[in-house]
UniProtKB/TrEMBL annotation:
Protein name: Peptidoglycan-binding protein
PANTHER family the UniProt entry points to: HLYD FAMILY OF SECRETION PROTEINS, MULTIDRUG RESISTANCE PROTEIN MDTA
Annotated source species: Streptomyces coerulescens
Any coiled-coil regions, as ranges: 200-250
Every Peptidoglycan binding-like domain range: 142-177
Length: 449
């Protein structure tokens, strides 16, 4: 039997109300869940507390501790010389002109090599440490003459029985042999200008004249001779012969100051060749360098007091990758600007205290002129010592210096220490009063949030 139409409508209304009530309950539950478990970023940040701090630690170590100074340096020769066209003996009034150039920039050369020719005269190099400052000619004496004699000997030209430091007959012969080997005629000292003022020729003529006069007096019959005239003539002859000996002693092959440069070691290098064939010899013909390669660096005022001769140095060439050990040879007492001193022109940077470093072994010639890094060992513990990072050390109000050890269980233990040598971010420490501190233990160096 079917329900009446009125009852059917009532039943549908009841089901709709029930569905509506159920949906409301579900929505209320969802709202409650959302308010409980879903939070905005701002609310989450507000309710969150600060994170627990992380303790930063570093191990206690045993190592050789060094305090280093790092600077820059330039590899250069121990001696650099500018060859200048100083006045040559016997040159005319015309300005000197470059007639030959035998070497190019960058080339190396041995002792006795002609580098350039000026107005037909050679400019050559000989071994020696004293700079040339005068013409070296027969009759001169001094250390520069001794240096010349030694240089001649190294090239195979003996100076005979000449006393060391005295330009005598043997040295004349050796100089003549040197110029012959170079392919040039030597300049002759005391030869005059070729117009009759040669002192040796004049002295010889005087000897001849007096000798003839004496011979004429002696040809007279014995009973007619004038004894006084003969005695005077003989005295005049002796004086003339003395003057001839003196003139001959200071005449002969010489080495003009304009034709030689003395260098400390060979092979030497041509740093720059400024001379050009056909051009006038300007203020500088060439720049040459010689001797063992060294490194010149510059120190600041705060670094200068830390560096002393004898300290170890590590040199690094970033261009070639060469690593060379060396030692500090010297430290300047006063600051020097590079342009003030020819020997420090290779120092990088501005004004500073020049430090010279010598390598323990010969530096490769390819490093000449290279900028390199210098690490100078300013101080060292000498042996392995107990060290901790500098940041691990703290000083209290009671002036006690301590480090904090973090135990494995998280507990912290303060250890009083006595600090020592510092370097490279570490400090030597010695436990005080029997306190325990061993390599491998962790010390607190900071806290990171």
């Amino acid at each position: 039997m079917s329900e009446p139409s009125g009852s059917s409508g009532l039943s549908r209304r009841k089901r709709a109300v029930a569905a509506l009530a159920t949906g409301a309950v579900v929505l209320a539950g969802a709202a409650l869940w959302t308010s409980t478990f879903v939070k905005s970023p701002a609310q989450a940040a507000a309710e969150a507390g600060p994170p627990a701090p992380d303790v930063l630690t570093a191990p206690v170590e045993r190592r050789v501790l060094s305090d280093t100074v790092v600077t820059r340096g330039v590899v250069s020769a121990s001696q650099t010389v500018d060859i200048a066209p100083v006045g040559a003996a016997g040159e005319g009034s015309a300005a000197p002109v470059v007639t030959k150039v035998m070497m190019r920039s960058g080339q190396t050369f041995k002792a006795g090599r002609v580098l350039v020719e000026v107005s037909g005269r050679p400019v050559f190099a000989l071994p020696g440490k004293l700079p040339v400052y005068r013409d070296l000619k027969p009759g001169t004496h001094g250390d520069d003459v001794r240096q010349l004699q030694k240089a001649l000997g190294t090239l195979g030209h003996s100076t005979g029985s000449d006393e060391a430091g005295t330009y005598g007959p043997g040295t004349k012969q050796a100089v003549a042999a040197l110029y012959a080997a170079l392919g040039y005629e030597p300049v002759v000292a005391g030869a005059g200008d070729g117009e009759g003022d040669d002192p040796v020729s004049a002295a010889r003529d005087q000897v001849k004249e007096v000798q003839r006069r004496l011979d004429g007096l002696l040809e007279v019959d014995a009973d007619k001779r004038d004894a006084d005239d003969i005695r005077y003539a003989r005295e005049d002859l002796a004086d003339a012969k003395t003057r001839l000996t003196e003139a001959e002693a200071v005449s002969g092959p010489m080495v003009p100051a304009s034709e030689v440069v003395f260098l400390a070691g060979f092979p030497a290098r041509v740093d720059a060749m400024d001379a050009e064939v056909g051009g006038e010899a300007g203020e500088k013909l060439a720049t040459v360098s010689a001797g063992r390669l060294v490194i010149r660096g510059s120190l600041g005022a705060q670094e200068k007091d830390l560096v002393r001769p004898g300290q170890k140095v590590e040199m690094l060439s970033e261009v070639y990758g060469d690593e060379v050990a060396g030692t500090v040879a010297s430290v300047a007492d006063v600051p020097t600007a590079p342009e003030d001193d020819k020997d420090t022109s290779a120092v990088p940077g501005g004004q500073g205290y020049v430090v010279v470093v010598k390598a323990d072994s010969a530096l490769p010639t390819r490093l000449a002129g290279q900028d390199v890094r210098l690490t100078i060992e300013a101080a060292t513990s000498g042996e392995k010592v107990l060290v901790v990072p500098v940041s691990a050390i703290s000083a209290g109000a009671d002036s006690r210096t301590t480090v904090t050890v973090l135990e494995r269980d998280g507990e912290r233990r303060r250890v009083e220490v006595r600090p020592g040598t510092s370097g490279d971010g570490y400090t030597e420490v010695t436990p005080v009063g029997g306190a325990r501190l061993a390599p491998g233990e962790k010390v607190v160096v900071g806290v990171a949030r």
